[in-house]
Amino acid sequence: MLKYTILVLFVLVSVASSYLYVSQGQYVWQNQGQCSASPTLVNVTVTKNVVNSFSANYGYPFLVNVTVNPDYTFNGLGALYYPGTWTLNGYTTVKGQIISQYNLLVVYNPSTTPSFGGATLNYLLVQCNSGSSKSISEQQEEANLASIMSGADN
Questions:
Q1: Residues 90-149 pLDDT 10s
Q2: Beta strand 73-81 with 40-47: parallel, antiparallel or unpaired?
Q3: Residue 92: beta bridge partners?
C-alpha cells in the first residue's frame, strides 16, 4: 500500500511540475513569420487562469479576459484598432496555444464587424529572449513548428 501511495504522489508531483503556464512580464509582440525593426512591447498580466495584455508604452489593451484551458490552449477577445492609430475599432475572438511559459502563439480570428482579415501573432518574453542561447528567429521557428503540429491555425 505504501508503495502505491508513493507512486501516486510521484505522479502527481510530475504532472504538476510539467504544467505550462504563462509568465507575467514584458513580451515582444510580432506578426508570425515577420521580423519587425521596431517590435511592439506588450505587458502581460496573469490572474489565476486569465491573461490580459496591454501596450507597454501607452497601456492600450490587446488581449482581454483570455482564459487558459487545461490543454494549454486559450481563448478570449483581442482588441482591434483603426490602422495607424490607437483608436479602438472593436474586438474579435482570439484563440491560441501556450508554446512555453515564455512564448505564446495568438490567432486573431477574422471579423466582419469591424472588418478584419485575421492575424497570427507571436508573444516572446523579453527577459527570456535577452538571456536565451537561442535567437528570436530560432524561437519563432520552434513556435511555427509547434503551431503546425498542434493545428492552432486551423
A1: 999 999 999 998 999 999 999 998 999 999 999 999 876 544 445 445 555 565 555 555
A2: unpaired
A3: 78
Residue 24's nearest CA partner among 3, 43, 9, 48 is 43
Domain range annotation of the chain: 20-150
131 to 21, 60, 76, 128, 138: CA distances (angstroms): 19, 28, 30, 5, 14
CATH number for the region 20-150 comes to 2.40.128
Show the cell assigned to 109.
480570428
pLDDT in tens, 15-70: 333 456 889 999 998 887 777 677 789 999 999 899 999 998 889 999 999 999 99
Cα dist. 105→12, 102, 113, 124, 151 in Å? Answer: 28, 10, 24, 9, 11
